Amino acid sequence: MKLLHIDSSVLGPNSVSRQVSAAIVDRLTRAMPGLEITYRDLAATPLSHLSGAHLAAAQGATPDAALQPDLAAGQAVLEEFLATDIVVIGAPMYNFTIPTQLKAWIDRIAVAGKTFKYDANGVQGLAGGKRVVIALSRGNFYGAGAPAAVYEHTETYLRGVFGFIGVTDIEVIVAEGIGAGPEQREKAIAGALQAATELRAA
Ligand SMILES: Cc1cc2nc3c(=O)[nH]c(=O)nc-3n(C[C@H](O)[C@H](O)[C@H](O)COP(=O)(O)O)c2cc1C
């Protein structure tokens, strides 16, 4: 079994989502000895944003030599994603949604003909059979009934995009209210770390 561990926070050792994603990987590694782990830090090694030249190359146009390394990087992350059984993602909320680095990764894995396709019935996800576990961290509170709930575009977005490509096994662990003072920060982190230990084994 393969596990792909992705982080996207720009806050390095102060990151909450990195702490929680590491705890998730620790839990799953203990539960499934022999799990093969691949780690990708999207903040340390970002992918570039998609351009028209990327899309033209995907349609068969001959790309500039300068674009070749980037196309190869995009192909590598797509193959890495397709080959894995479990994906663990550290996903902070920045400006009400995911970091641009994580979006750039999603732009490389949401590829027509590879992870989804359109047919007469609409869209069909092609990346089913994977388990996705997301460690979300948010400064404010966005749960049901919270005044800011309508601004939640992190969990809703990630559930949407993975659902779109056919993933149905999605678990989300949330640490929120991180900006509401040190006590709440500690409480939220402790709750998320506890939830990580309670993830199902396989
Ligand atoms: C650039 C930036 C933008 C942020 N935007 C939001 C926001 O829109 N809503 C919110 O609730 N928290 C926001 N926060 C707070 C983060 O969600 C919170 O600090 C969270 O712990 C970040 O995850 P990380 O620690 O893994 O980076 C923002 C933080 C940063 C650094």
Hetero groups bound?
Answer: flavin mononucleotide
Structure annotation, total helices: 6
Supply the helix-strand structural class. alpha/beta
- Overall 3D form: globular
- Number-wise, the strands total 7
Any low-confidence stretches, pLDDT <50, length ≥5?
Answer: none
Please list the strands of the largest sheet in the order they lie side by side: 2-1-3-6-7
Taken in chain order, the helices and strands follow as EHEHHEHEEEHEH
The termini sit apart by 10 Å
Q: Quote the beta fraction.
A: 15-25%
Helix content: 25-40%
Average pLDDT? 97
Report on this model:
The protein has 202 residues and is an alpha/beta fold. The chain is built from six helices and seven strands; from the N terminus they run βαβααβαβββαβα. Strands 2-1-3-6-7 form a five-stranded parallel sheet, sandwiched between helices. The chain has a two-stranded antiparallel ribbon with strand order 4-5. Helix 1 links the parallel strand 1 (2-7) and strand 2. Helix 1 runs parallel beside helix 6 (182-197). The longest helix is centred in the N-terminal third of the chain and has 16 residues, at 16-31. Bound molecules: flavin mononucleotide.
